[in-house]
Amino acid sequence: MKDDKLKPWMRILLILCGLALVVVLFVPLWRIDLDAPQYPEGLWLLIYPDKLAGNVDIINGLNHYIGMKTLHTEDFIEFTLLPYIIGFFALFFVAAGVAAREKLLYVLFILFVSFGILAMYDFWRWEYNYGHNLDPNAAIIVPGMAYQPPLIGFKQLLNFGAYSFPDVGGWIFISAGAVLLFIVVIVWRSAKKRKMKFANAVMVFSLLTLMTSCNTGPEALKTGVDNCYFCKMTISDVRFGAELVSKKGKIYKFDDSRCMINFLKTKDVEEKSIKGLYLTNYSGIHQLIDVKNALLLKAEDLRSPMGGNVAAFDNKDSLQTIQKRFNGSIINWSDLYKP
Fold first, then answer.
1. Is the pTM of this model over 0.90?
2. Considering its fold, how many domains does the chain have in total?
3. Most Cβ neighbours (<10 Å): which of 24, 107, 258, 325?
4. Residue 221 belongs to a domain
């Protein structure tokens, strides 16, 4: 391969990405889904390159009560600019494929990544203003409460669960970026002469991309702040706490292992949707332990908040020390809960 020419398969991929970006002009880029008991079918907000769609009127009606601004397409200059920006990148991808020049590829890569970062910041800024700048004369005011939707993933907003994820157009945009990154890395590795600065930039970008795909883990319980999802009581003793984490990243907190077991029996969260179940370590710093690794002691004298009377430990020494005080029996998680 010549120093400044791309291979034919790279050119074809770039042209296909350019054509795919044209599709983005006609499909939703992003979506925010809202789940609540009073809306069993859910509500959704679809964000197209040039408009808002979905249950906009219903969401505006609900937001009016808590002082949030109503959403209108004409209020966002982004909907005027975005179609032109997407069209620009569609043409740039095709031009880079046709010209097959490495320098043009690098310019496209830098512009595309810069736009992606700027677009996500602009989206976050909009969500922040939308969730924090509330009408002080609203019908419902919760002191200290903000309603900023999640940038990506899940967040609980009062009795609504908000999910924010890319839609068809967003995934096309991400895929085009992934293909572009792949080609850039291949070109960089095969080139004979490359400056170290550009090599470092590609490596940093790759690391940032990997970091954004991290999985959601358990979240520490907060005494006097968190409420039990099942019994609705405020968690007052974290030593007996429990937690369920769904594959979507939603976290359910409980003040007692009994509450988590009773919740599991309701099947509100299907077994296949559960990422992990955790119990608080009775000793030490009270970190959360996966139920598969926890050592359990059941003793009536433990007197846990909801009568589960089960303590979890991460080592035998701690368990045996507490067992001497409460004279309980050692059990397994399977003894407590059978799906």
1. no
2. 2
3. 24
4. no
